């Protein structure tokens, strides 16, 4: 039969024939170096391709391992790049700061993104280092009329007219300098414009038209801006003038979020000193007037009121405070994932080094002959590094394909919206090229220097033994691989256990089978009669009207309360306020530990009644809270002094978590109030779908076209810990990849170890050894290495996960069984990997192995 020859096509070879890909590696090498005159380099490439083709199993294992590690690394790099890129779209991002509140009083801390309305203008007015300011007041949802119906928009804000001077948001139509100057003016983004107006009118012909908001407010559109970039810590669709937010110029309030643009050339420390001076002047004066207490008196008591400069680019990863516009990321997770990417890539490189040194005996004679014929050690090192870089290059090509395929799954796990085009962006391509060289040199460095060090005389005399037991470095690398894998398994188990603890812990309220109608306020007074109608439905237990829900963290205020009817220093307590109705406690399944719930129909004085939680009663020192009194500032008299209103304690509710479990339960007071932000409905159970449909039908009769927008409270609760859940899923994924790559390398090592001990296995079988004994013999060394890896991993993993758990005020422990389970899983995985190849070697016919010898 005629041998197959590739057909020439205009200087290129035809690879469309059915010959195996391996047979074309030499031709591919020649094709790559056709245009080079460097004979030596051509030879290096040709020999490298031949070597890779000759060891098909070695090449396949290394390419699969490296490509998997590189694919995971690329995905994590995209994630980290995206997280680090927030708010950098702003031209002056490095000169924009937010003024964050840091208040501590009577052992109660308030860390918020908000502050007093007059603060930013005062900074600009009195400090030339501050160039511009903008204040924002987030209004949340708003109903916008379209035809005969209303559409609920989620990103509605009040802002100063300087918004476009501080932030780089391009105006598509209208004047950015004057767009927010006039009363009832409105700036909308392009997406909103296309939703409410004809496409042909967007953006230019939209300016001058009107939109009707809730309460029949007619707003004139004065500008259309570009949609907010995805990598922004806030997103707004509708912007109204700040003066229409109804916020007073009160120095002791937390009522808006302020940003300042500073002039170039000033350090953050110097700018902070100017903020401190302004705060001490104006807030100190307000405290003296309203609270009859100086800043110095307060600080002597260990309390303080500060406003700290938060760099704009740090907000997304370093700020999770009260009154944040949106949930932010976490810098710790970014660093952890970057570290994991490095570890997974290291495991893949270790595989290459291990397999290269394991097969050193197969190339020892090649090294000896090439040295005898004149090759220098430097040339041999370059040769082996060339092979390594080539293999790394092929692995990268495959890795990009694998990463593109896995990207939708990765987006779902991480909550990101990354796209394939990011792999070919200006900063990823150089990084990929750097990875090829780094991985190639890192993975090939030890084999290159190790193989090139062989003495030709010793090699040709057959004195180079490359048995499995001969390399302490190779054993150390196996320990390193499984040390990482076991550490990731422990981390996964601890994270999963903590998330399970959060979901199952008694948080002081019952979140199951509670429907939350988000926009109840749009129904006006009719929502109260609607609540009464709901109670007539068979499946409804109770319903409450309030927006201060425990699954809506941050949507509450902290106010000053006084133990006595005076504002003397030391008499004030800073307490969290929830504004609720009499149905709040029974609807949410809370429990009274003393006194009673609100009952305004029976007790007219309940309008001035308050309910404490256990933490507040303990802080205030009320051993018997019943009929205790507290005082809160009310209206001002003619002299500007505040009148203190008297409230009486009618009960104490069991502590419940109204913030996340990262924080302890704060001292809290419930006030009876008409708060219609949302309507929460508790069902008995049964057919929830039909019950929701009944509620929706009733809503349609009273809502005047407003949409029926709802969530379930248990889902809202889980969303509080969305970041932790995503982290847990990613941890599991990375642990699986790390173990797979480690097992792939272990499989290759076992294969070579079995090949090198073929004669020994044959002799043992002839002398009566059974399959189980031979498998145990070959597996013992590897299992010992996994055991050593476990011992090293346990203390390090315990320390790392204990540090993570410290971020939770309520947390589970790290039990001994987690370490036992991680070690058991690693040993089982290693045993399965090793046994697959060792059983095959043990079952081989000893006659064939001894005959070959």
UniProtKB/TrEMBL annotation:
Keyword check for Cell membrane: yes
Membrane topology of the entry: Multi-pass membrane protein
Name this polypeptide is given: Putative ABC transport system permease protein
Alphabetical UniProt keywords: Cell membrane, Membrane, Transmembrane, Transmembrane helix
Gene source species: Dinghuibacter silviterrae
Location within or outside the cell: Cell membrane
GO CC terms: plasma membrane
Domain of life: Bacteria
A Gene Ontology molecular function term of the record: transmembrane transporter activity
């Amino acid at each position: 039969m005629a041998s197959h020859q590739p057909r020439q096509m205009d200087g290129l070879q035809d690879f469309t024939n059915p010959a195996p890909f391996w047979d074309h590696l030499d031709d591919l090498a020649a094709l790559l170096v056709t245009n080079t005159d460097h004979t030596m380099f051509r030879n290096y490439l040709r020999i490298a391709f031949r070597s890779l083709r000759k060891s098909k199993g070695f090449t396949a294992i290394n390419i699969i391992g490296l490509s998997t590690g590189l694919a995971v690394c690329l995905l994590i790099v995209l994630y980290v790049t995206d997280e680090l890129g927030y708010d950098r779209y702003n031209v002056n991002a490095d000169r924009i700061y937010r003024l964050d509140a840091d208040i501590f009083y009577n052992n109660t801390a308030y860390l918020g993104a908000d502050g007093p309305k007059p603060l930013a203008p005062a900074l600009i007015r009195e400090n030339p280092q501050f160039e511009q300011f903008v204040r924002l007041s987030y209004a949340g949802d708003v109903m916008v009329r379209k035809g005969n119906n209303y559409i609920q928009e989620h990103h509605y804000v009040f802002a100063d007219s300087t918004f476009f001077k501080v932030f780089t948001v391009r105006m598509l139509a209208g004047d950015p300098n004057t767009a927010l100057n006039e009363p009832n003016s409105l700036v909308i983004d392009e997406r909103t414009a296309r939703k409410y107006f004809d496409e042909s009118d967007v953006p230019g012909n939209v300016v001058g038209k009107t939109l009707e908001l809730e309460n029949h407010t007619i707003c004139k559109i004065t500008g259309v801006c570009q949609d907010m970039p995805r990598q922004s810590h806030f997103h707004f669709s509708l912007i109204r003038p700040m003066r229409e937010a109804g916020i007073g110029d009160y120095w002791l309030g937390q009522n808006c979020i302020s940003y300042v643009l500073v002039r170039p050339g000033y350090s953050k420390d110097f700018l902070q000193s100017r903020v401190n001076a302004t705060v001490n002047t104006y807030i100190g004066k307000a405290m003296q007037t309203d609270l009859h207490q100086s800043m110095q008196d307060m600080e002597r008591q260990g309390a303080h009121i500060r406003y700290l400069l938060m760099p704009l680019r740090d907000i997304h990863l370093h700020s999770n405070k009260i009154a944040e516009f949106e949930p932010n990321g976490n810098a710790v997770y970014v660093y952890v994932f970057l570290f994991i990417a490095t570890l997974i890539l290291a495991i893949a490189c270790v595989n290459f080094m291990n397999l290269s040194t394991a097969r050193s005996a197969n190339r020892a004679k090649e090294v000896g002959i090439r040295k005898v014929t004149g090759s220098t050690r430097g040339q041999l090192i370059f040769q082996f590094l060339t092979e390594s870089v080539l293999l790394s290059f092929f692995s990268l090509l495959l890795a990009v394909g694998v990463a593109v395929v896995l990207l939708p799954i990765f987006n779902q796990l991480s909550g990101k919206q990354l796209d394939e085009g990011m792999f070919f962006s200006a900063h990823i391509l150089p990084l990929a090229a750097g990875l090829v060289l780094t991985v190639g040199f890192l993975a090939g460095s030890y084999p290159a220097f190790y193989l090139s060090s062989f003495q030709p005389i010793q090699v040709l005399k057959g004195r180079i033994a490359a048995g499995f037991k001969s390399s302490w470095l190779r054993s150390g690398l196996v320990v390193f691989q499984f040390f990482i894998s076991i550490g990731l398994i422990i981390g996964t188990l601890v994270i999963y256990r903590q998330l399970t603890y959060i979901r199952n812990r008694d948080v002081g309220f019952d979140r199951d089978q509670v429907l939350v109608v988000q926009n109840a306020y749009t129904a006006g007074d009719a929502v109260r009669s609607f609540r009464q109608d709901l109670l007539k439905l068979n499946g409804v237990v109770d319903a409450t009207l309030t927006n201060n829900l425990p699954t809506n963290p941050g949507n509450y205020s902290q106010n000053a309360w006084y133990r006595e009817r005076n504002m003397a220093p030391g008499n004030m307590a800073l307490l969290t306020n929830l504004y609720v109705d009499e149905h709040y406690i029974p609807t949410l399944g809370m429990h009274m530990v003393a006194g009673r719930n609100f009952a305004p129909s029976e007790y007219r004085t309940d309008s001035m009644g308050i309910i404490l939680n256990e933490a507040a009663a303990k802080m205030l020192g009320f051993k018997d809270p019943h009929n205790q009194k507290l005082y809160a500032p009310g209206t001002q008299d003619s002299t500007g002094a505040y009148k203190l209103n008297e409230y009486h304690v009618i009960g104490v509710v069991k502590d419940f978590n109204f913030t996340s479990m990262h924080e302890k339960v704060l001292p809290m007071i419930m006030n009876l109030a008409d708060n219609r932000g949302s309507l929460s409905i508790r069902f008995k159970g049964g057919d929830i779908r039909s019950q929701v449909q009944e509620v929706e039908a009733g809503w349609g009769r009273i809502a005047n076209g407003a949409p029926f927008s709802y969530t379930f409270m248990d889902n809202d609760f889980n969303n509080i810990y969305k970041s932790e859940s995503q982290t847990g899923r990613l941890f599991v994924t990375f642990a699986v990849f790390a173990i797979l790559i480690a097992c792939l390398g272990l499989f290759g090592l076992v294969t070579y170890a079995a090949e090198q001990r073929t004669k020994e296995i044959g002799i043992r079988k002839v002398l009566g050894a059974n399959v189980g004994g031979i498998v145990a013999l070959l597996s013992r060394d590897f299992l010992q290495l996994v055991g050593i890896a476990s011992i090293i991993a346990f203390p390090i993993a315990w320390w790392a996960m204990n540090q993570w758990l410290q971020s939770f005020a309520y947390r589970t422990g790290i039990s001994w069984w987690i370490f036992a389970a991680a070690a058991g899983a690693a040993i089982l995985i290693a045993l399965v990997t090793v046994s697959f190849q060792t059983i095959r070697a043990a079952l081989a016919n000893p006659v064939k192995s001894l005959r070959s010898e």
